[in-house]
């Protein structure tokens, strides 16, 4: 399943939560006390015609993305969602550029990720198709797990799987320029 959606990145979860509630959108927020070491503290995403509200509220960046659901999230469609999501920001390998890196991410990496990340309960790729403001990023990978312990301890099925994922990521992503992941909880302010 694919859809075009707006994504707004925020340095604080409070401002993001306010926009998500007002725009009837979804919030991914890193709830740790200090997020100063992270590229952002929260993302708000959704299908909306409120571009100016996103642009006015977001202090990190605003992007139009293609939301590719690789593995659907089980559970409710509204409220706080179970589990935790590792949000990995993608900067394309400069030797490939956006289009080729994105094609590899979609066509080669996604099947490998499903094979290696056996404890992953849901997986989405937000491929950035237009940047309204903010850093020149190429996408966000949303890797969902039942718990923080599962994300940390069961991210890879085997040591060989870890090597395979890391080698593949190096093919399409710039590891030095891709920001650190955030550890997010998801709240959906959308109607059921």
How would you characterize this protein structure?
There is one protein chain. With 192 residues, the protein is of the alpha+beta class. The protein has one domain: Alpha-Beta Plaits (2-Layer Sandwich), CATH 3.30.70.100. It is 30% helix and 33% strand. The protein has five helices and nine strands; from the N terminus they run E-H-E-E-H-E-E-E-H-E-E-H-H-E. The protein has helices spanning 13-23, 51-57, 97-116, 148-153, 159-172, and strands at 2-10, 26-29, 42-46, 61-71, 79-80, 84-90, 122-133, 139-145, 182-188. The protein has an eight-stranded antiparallel β-barrel with strand order 1-3-2-9-6-8-7-4. A hairpin with a 5-residue loop joins strand 7 and strand 8. Helix 3 packs antiparallel against helix 5 (159-172). The chain is globular and about 45 Å long. 36% of the residues are buried. The model has no long low-confidence stretch (mean pLDDT 92).
CATH class: Alpha Beta
Radius of gyration: 16 Å
Number of helices: 5
Q: How helical, in percent, are the residues? A: 25-40%
Order of helices and strands: EHEEHEEEHEEHHE
**What are the segments in which pLDDT stays under 50 over at least 5 consecutive residues?**
none
> What's the number of structural domains?
1
Largest sheet: 8 strands, antiparallel, barrel
Chain oligomer state: single chain
CATH domain topology: Alpha-Beta Plaits
Supply the CATH architecture: 2-Layer Sandwich
Mean pLDDT: 92
Q: Could you tell me the number of beta strands?
A: 9
Beta content: 25-35%
General form: globular
* Spatial ordering of strands, largest sheet: 1-3-2-9-6-8-7-4
Q: For the terminal residues, how far apart are their CA atoms?
A: 18 Å
The computed structural class is: alpha+beta
């Amino acid at each position: 399943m694919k859809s075009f959606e707006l994504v707004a990145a925020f340095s604080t979860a409070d401002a993001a939560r306010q926009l998500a509630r007002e725009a009837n959108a979804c919030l991914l927020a890193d709830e740790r006390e200090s997020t100063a070491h992270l590229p952002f503290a929260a993302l708000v995403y959704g299908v909306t015609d409120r571009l100016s509200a996103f642009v006015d509220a977001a202090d990190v960046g605003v992007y139009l993305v293609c939301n590719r659901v690789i593995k659907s999230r089980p559970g409710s469609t509204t409220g706080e969602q179970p589990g935790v999501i590792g949000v990995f920001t993608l900067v394309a390998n400069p030797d490939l550029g956006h289009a080729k890196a994105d094609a590899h991410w979609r066509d080669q990496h996604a099947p490998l990720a499903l094979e290696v990340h056996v404890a992953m309960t849901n997986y989405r790729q937000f491929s950035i198709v237009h940047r309204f403001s903010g850093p020149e990023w190429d996408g966000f990978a949303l890797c969902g797990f039942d718990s923080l312990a599962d994300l940390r301890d069961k991210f890879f099925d085997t040591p060989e799987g870890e090597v395979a994922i890391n080698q593949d990521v190096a093919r399409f992503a710039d590891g030095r320029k891709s920001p650190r992941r955030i550890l997010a909880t998801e709240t959906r302010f959308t109607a059921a």
